[in-house]
Amino acid sequence: MLKRRSVSEITFDYFNIIFLVFSVVIMIYPFLYVVFASLSDPARFAEHSGLLLSPLSLSFDSYKAVFDNPNILNGYKNTLVYLLVGTTINMALTTLGAYSLSLRKLKMRNYIMMGIVFTMLFNGGLIPTYILIKNLHFIDSIWAITLPSAISTMNLIIMRTSFQSIPASLEESARIDGANDLVIFARIMIPLSIPVISVMILFYGVGNWNAWFNASIYLRSREKYPLQLILREILIQNSTDSMMTGAAASDDKSLVSETIKYATIVVATVPILMVYPMLQKYFVKGVMVGAIKG
Amino acid sequence: MQKSVSVTKFKNKTNPLIALKKDLTLNKCAYLMLAPVILYYLIFQYFPLYGAQIAFKDFEFSRGIIGSKFIGFENFVEFFNAFYFWRIIRNTIVLSLYNIVFGFPAPIILALLINEVKSTTFKRITQTLTYLPHFISMVVICGLILDFTSRGGVVNDLLHLFGVPPTAFMLEPQWFRTIYVSTDIWQQVGWGSIIYLAALTGINQELYEACNVDGAGRWKQLITVTLPGIAPTIIIMLILRMGKLMDVGLEKVMLLYNSNTYETADIISTFVYRKGLIDMSYSYSAAVGLFNSAICFVFLIIVNNISRRVNETSLW
């Protein structure tokens, strides 16, 4: 009896591993395909059909073309600016708000918190927000990109819960030494919350790096476009246009552009893929706390 | 000590203004730190809420929110009578339901399978790699979907091997939901499993030992210990998910749809976008948006109340 069970368990373990490996391959193969295609010779890639298991005659032409493209470089630069300014604002407001709302001594704390949580359940919507941004004269400026999404309420709640879990005794002893709230915040709370803070920086950073919608409705001049809007032109609009008109990639220029497309994706995605695995062990903290207490 | 506490409580009750003033002066520093946050919520969250009144007006930028002419429910009536009203409601609900039915169990199953793996290295690598699609931008994901499913794309190349004639999938309305939902599962299943994996580590290990003593197999352990152990998390996540039934984000649909697929792809939020920001019918679009927000809000409250009655688990 015992032996038979262990046989079925071993079978299950094998199938489980095979299934998970298969899932992982499905998860990452599209990106491997992109990397292989971006490193392929444009002409050979155009003739190829089906899956790719390695680059077709290694060539860096597409990457050269990407780094020669002023639009992409400019978009990259804009994205970096929006990312730095945006994430700084995100973090400043989120940590300040989360800390002060974690202080039990504040009498109005619960009312303010209710007011904040309500915005998660009900909001004015796209058009009233657009009108607000227009009335603030933020159209076509960096503030239209960074300010409307300055605080994610979910992240605020996660940070607040994390501050609340820090033992009160630490805070009390500092208070006896005459430290005020700002000093306690900067000297005690922040250093003790580095793991959660780094996850928050990652969440906000990835959000800012990947954001395109606000930029697409609020920015007017092309030289201010972030990378994702340039990518949208290259990946979505062109492909939809060619789909609708039925035009096939035939002339030499569009041959090159197929692989350039993939090289652009790689260039736009690699920075994020470098960062997130390093913070993986902290993810649970970031995701868990918020979802349960939210 | 006891006495002084009750005295201050009494005072607070008699004059809330004085109590408020005392609170503000005592905690000046904390409230100053909170001020920019409150300002953010007032300006960027509550002002649009105030601005939502343009749904009942004929808004013009030159007249402003207050100065625009009040027209009552005209915008709403026009929307309810429009021929695409049922189409976008149906598309929103169907897309969302498909996403829940197929997308909700996926991360739970993945978490349970990862949990059964003994090697921690294998576990960690699997997790890292399944999180990957979550971090890729929607523009890139949708660009790849359009590329792979196009006439000359990889999917058609593979189908060709089996003799299937090529299809431009994203031009066919009947394929839209399948592609939307399956790619959504693909992108979010790994990330969604984190919360269940965390819940799984919280299960009391003694229960498993007791199972081993009783001779219960792994299937039995799954049914009697593991699933009940993560049930509260599953229920909360399901409430959150059901509460968002009518709230389908516009980014992915906007990047994937085109005029050929409106029949199945056009949802409330993309309709609001087109009417408001392309056609510039601000008030009409705001009315549709407000209608959607109100439905979402009511729906979340209903789902939460049902859950509180049935399971004694609720968000508030």
Description:
The complex is a heterodimer of chains A (294) and B (316). Chain A is mainly alpha-helical and 294 residues long. Chain A folds into 2 domains: 7-61, no CATH class; 69-242 and 254-293, MetI-like (MetI-like fold). Chain A has 15 helices and no strands. Chain A is globular. By secondary structure, chain B is mostly helical. Classes of the chains: A mainly alpha (294), B mainly alpha (316). At the A-B interface, helix 1, helix 4, helix 5, helix 6 and helix 10 of A face helix 2, helix 3, helix 7, helix 8 and helix 9 of B.
What's the short story on this structure?
Chain A is mainly alpha-helical. Chain A contains 15 helices and no strands. Chain A is globular and about 75 Å long.
Task: Please describe the structure with a list of short key phrases separated by commas or semicolons.
heterodimer; A: 294 residues; mainly alpha; MetI-like fold; 2 domains; 15 helices; disordered C terminus; B: 316 residues; two-stranded antiparallel sheet; 17 helices
- Roughly what is the average pLDDT of chain A, rounded to an integer? 86
Total DSSP helices of chain B = 17
Helix content of chain B: over 70%
Report on the biggest sheet of chain B. Answer: 2 strands, antiparallel
Number of strands of chain B: 2
- The general outline of chain A is globular
CATH class call of the largest domain in chain A: Mainly Alpha
Find the CATH topology of the largest domain in chain A: MetI-like fold
Q: How many strand segments of chain A? A: 0
**What is the mean pLDDT of chain B?**
88
How are strands sequenced across the largest beta sheet of chain B? Answer: 1-2
Q: Could you give a short account of the major beta sheet of chain A?
A: none
SSE string of chain B: HHHEHEHHHHHHHHHHHHH
CA distance, first residue to last residue of chain B: 34 Å
Query: Can you identify the CATH superfamily of the largest domain in chain A?
Result: MetI-like
Quaternary assembly: heterodimer
Order of helices and strands of chain A: HHHHHHHHHHHHHHH
What is the molecular shape of chain B? globular
Low-confidence stretches of chain B are: 1-8
